[in-house]
Amino acid sequence: MSSITLFEEKQVRRAWNATEEKWYFAIVDVMAILTDSPNPQVYWRVIKKRLKDEGNETVTICNGLKMTAADGKQRLTDVANTEQLLRLIQSIPSPKAEPFKRWLAKVGYERL
Fold first, then answer.
1. Do β-strands 10-17 and 63-68 pair in parallel, antiparallel, or remain unpaired?
2. Average confidence score pLDDT of the chain
3. Pairing label, strands 2-7, 10-17
4. Where are the domains of the chain?
5. Whole-prediction pTM value?
6. Strands (DSSP E) found in the chain
């Protein structure tokens, strides 16, 4: 099951994995919120490369899921579960990080 949830009126795409009983969140949506970047896809690619170069394992275990893009088409999107996303957020200098972490804790476990 996939759905959209809101953080400060901004959309975050997510998908529920019933087998693992975990939510997976679209990483570029989170990047857009935390960085206010005009191109969060590029920001994510830069962060992803930097973390890989540093040997950060979080990036290598992020999955790709098909999610509905802004144009309405299903596109393969990098996603992370709550734990992975919290690790990624630590790598992004943003004053929105703490409020986002609290929000993530709330919506990440609402299904449980």
1. unpaired
2. 82
3. antiparallel
4. 2-108
5. 0.80
6. 2-7, 10-17, 22-26, 63-68, 74-81
